[in-house]
Amino acid sequence: MKNLIAARAAQIEASGIRKIFDLAATLKDPINLSIGQPDFDVPEPVKDAAIAAIRAGFNRYTPSGGIPELREKVLARFQRDHGVRLDDGFIASGVSGALTLALLALVNPGDEVLLPDPFFVSYTHLTTICGGVPVYYDTYPDFRVDPEAVEKLVTPRTKAILAMSPGNPTGACMDESSKQALADLARRKGLALITDEIYELFTYGPHGKSLATYYPEGSLVLGGLSKTAAMTGWRVGWTLGPKHLIDAMLKLQQFTFVCAPSFAQKAALVAFDADLSAAVPVYRAKRDRMLAGLRVAGYEAPEPGGAFYLFVKAPKRYANGTAFVEEAVRRELLLVPGGVFSRRDTHFRISYAAPDEKLERALEIFKAMA
Ligand SMILES: Cc1ncc(COP(=O)(O)O)c(C=O)c1O
44-273: which CATH topology? Predict the structure, then answer.
């Protein structure tokens, strides 16, 4: 049979993370620091709410934008935390769903989207799936965003700037002055600003403002419960922003995702009212322990302000990040090569959302490999 696969699918290589998962499956008791999700489970009251919703028959389609009380909760919480009421918002199938719809709504074939490098893996692929052209703003070596450097990349084809804080894979948080300058740039150039704030809870320094507060009329905030309530499999996220953009995205949601899972939206109401902050000092301590251990062993890594990742430069004696990770996997330590998240393959990502005993064993291996 002739090849029927469309170029948009054919051009995508299988996720580099998937390859590590396949390798992991062959190991008996690996130290797995490759996973981008918390190591705690969904809080019990949130599980109870999901089960109760299913038992009560709340299993049908919800309105496409989500149940009204959850939509309102998301808008109200943003206002409480950031002092700005955004126009509108809706419940999406995770941040991945919201991001897909945002790019589908904004990007025409050939439009350029400014993405950070390192980036979250989906950013590149979703941009190209939508016919867009990823243009990267480099944030090495300390993973700070330099708005002046971003400005130099703007062309008449630029449609949007994507930013994240805290970020994946670096954990880097934007400071308030770069947020202000990036938002001013987007406003001056008439660009959409998409701000991925999925790791918002996991912030170890002062909680800054959302990027969107500096440019509410042109920003789309993406948030969700995958990381904060460990609900990665339940697919609840949201987007907030100007009404015309939200309306365009909602039209697309009707014919694609239809709605976020019904029971999970009910559970999300409970997750919103729960205090999820207990994990934050625990993860901060893990960050500090890992960073100190790595530095003593001679690794170069800037201190990340959030999320649960460290993005570390591979020592010179390894050809690149992939070579380092291959050796680590041989020693039963699973990591992700930096090339999965970047045009460069110089680093590796550690997810420290893991038990302390595993982190200690990992540090021994890092020391041996330095
Ligand atoms: C920066 C970033 N954005 C979005 C996502 C996807 O989140 P969701 O599970 O809500 O689709 C992830 C997941 O790893 C992420 O790291």
Answer: Aspartate Aminotransferase; domain 2 (3.40.640)
